[in-house]
Design goal:
With 337 residues, the chain is an alpha/beta fold. The chain has two domains: 168 residues, Thiolase/Chalcone synthase (Peroxisomal Thiolase, Chain A, domain 1); 116 residues, 3-Layer(aba) Sandwich (Peroxisomal Thiolase, Chain A, domain 1), CATH 3.40.47. The chain contains eleven helices and 13 strands. A five-stranded mixed β-sheet has the order 1-7-6-4-5, sandwiched between helices.
């Protein structure tokens, strides 16, 4: 049986960790550090802009990708697909995935390279696309999927919410085609839900064809990261448990078989509530917002890499990845490591 298995993972976060008080000082903003640490779970993060580093999305993606390739012991020239999952691309065009292919392979090759943009659900969406391609195409031996986030590049001066929450980082997974896989091995199943009527909550609305960047737009301050209306506080609490149930039903897998859960790392208290609804102990999930802040499409693969490195999950474990993105997009993956 042909399966797409996880061959390696990697992580990158720019510069030194910056704690909450340092963010206030460096960004010149104020926010409730105690609430951020105790309820949301964010205590530190990495931000290239505040660290005065000349790095951006493609740099983060490249370094996480190289880490995953090194972890798997695979030459970049053996990779046939490069997917960058992000809503903070290096450029509007060309795709960051193309830039990544050029950096890693150095020349024209028989490889596919593109971006998947589904807000903060981009990684789980891209992973599903890549896994299905690896299984269906006999010529595709390796696919590299990188979730990357550089939202601090879009945060305006004085935005206390933006500076307190968002951070930079990248997480990568290298998938390998295994034609001798056992049933229920590797990437097993994925599910998604979307509701584009919710597009006008939170995002980066300037720079596309609807609102190109002009002097008038810049003068008005209507650019960069924008929170147009508050997101419902219980949205993920309502979305995630049914999504997990649907994923397991689709895969015909009992919940008791799942070893570990990974969720969008935006709010620790929400993850605690969701695990409670699922009837699962917190020991069966990993949170990394305490050290990396909120890193959008990068946070789920970053949490997975951390869990592997710390021995919280191991080869043979059945894991669930769940991610939410603005717009609305939500997705989940079921994988046996």
């Amino acid at each position: 049986m042909t399966v797409a298995k996880v061959a390696g993972t990697g992580l990158y976060a720019p510069g030194e960790a910056i704690d909450n008080e340092a963010v206030k000082r460096l960004a010149g903003v104020d926010f409730d550090s105690e609430k951020l640490a105790n309820k949301i779970g964010i205590k530190a993060r990495h931000i290239a802009r505040l660290s005065k580093l000349k790095e951006s999305t493609a740099d983060f993606a490249e370094k996480a990708a190289r880490a995953a390739l090194a972890n798997a012991g695979i030459d970049p020239l053996d990779v046939g697909m490069f997917l960058v999952a992000t809503d903070t691309p290096e450029f509007i065009s060309p795709a960051t995935g193309i830039v990544l292919q050029g950096r890693l392979q150095g020349s024209e090759q028989e490889s596919r390279a593109f971006d998947v943009g589904s807000s903060c659900a981009s990684f789980v969406t891209a992973l599903d696309v890549a896994a299905r391609a690896v299984v269906s195409d006999p010529t595709l031996r390796y696919a590299l999927v990188v979730g990357v986030y550089n939202m601090p590049a879009y945060i305006k001066d004085g935005d206390g919410f933006g500076w307190s929450m968002f951070a930079d980082g990248a997480g990568a997974i290298l998938l390998e085609r295994d034609e001798n896989g056992k049933p229920g091995a590797g990437y097993i199943e994925g599910v998604s839900r979307s509701d584009g009527t919710q597009w006008n909550y939170i995002g980066v609305y300037t720079g596309g064809t609807k609102t190109p960047v002009t002097k008038e737009v810049l003068d008005s301050g209507q650019y960069g990261f924008q929170l147009l209306q508050p997101l419902p506080g219980d949205r993920n609490v309502k979305l995630w448990p049914p999504l997990v149930t649907r994923l397991l039903e689709k895969a015909k897998v009992a919940q008791g078989e799942v070893s570990h859960y990974f969720f969008t790392q935006i709010n620790k208290s929400v993850i605690e509530k969701v695990m409670g609804i699922l009837g699962e102990p917190m020991e069966k999930t990993t949170t990394v917002m305490d050290r990396y802040g909120y890193t959008g499409s990068a946070c789920v693969p970053m949490a997975l890499h951390t869990a592997i490195e710390e021995g919280r999950v191991k080869k043979g474990d059945l894991i669930v990845l769940v991610a939410s993105g603005a717009g609305l997009s939500v997705g989940a993956n079921l994988i046996r490591l």
